[in-house]
Design a protein that fits this description.
Elements: H1 2-20, E1 24-29, E2 32-37, H2 38-90
Antiparallel strand pairs: 1-2
Helix pairs in contact: 1-2
């Protein structure tokens, strides 16, 4: 919930900034020359930042899920071993 509120606040600030800065800006990168509005540039950069954050988060989540599955498998094996030892002891 806290992350949603923060994301909404950032989006609102970005929209306010975009509305107040609607002038054109020239962008030169290597062989490209583009003229676009500051608002469009801000939206593109914001989306790129969000996408980058999501990719980094997804990578971390996948690593944590893999570690969790491995730990759960090890726990299951240990519980089975304990059960086998207990059954042998009392049989």
């Amino acid at each position: 919930m806290k992350q949603t509120v923060i994301a909404a606040a950032i989006a609102l600030l970005a929209v306010i900034f975009a509305i107040q800065n609607s002038g054109d800006v020239d962008i030169n990168f290597l062989f490209w020359h583009i003229t676009t509005s500051k608002a469009l540039l801000l939206i593109i950069v914001l989306i790129a930042g969000i996408a980058t954050g999501l990719l980094v988060s997804a990578s971390r989540m996948m690593k944590k899920n893999t570690a969790m599955k491995s730990a759960n498998k090890k726990i299951s094996e240990l519980e089975k071993n304990i059960s086998d030892v207990t059954n042998k002891k009392y049989n």
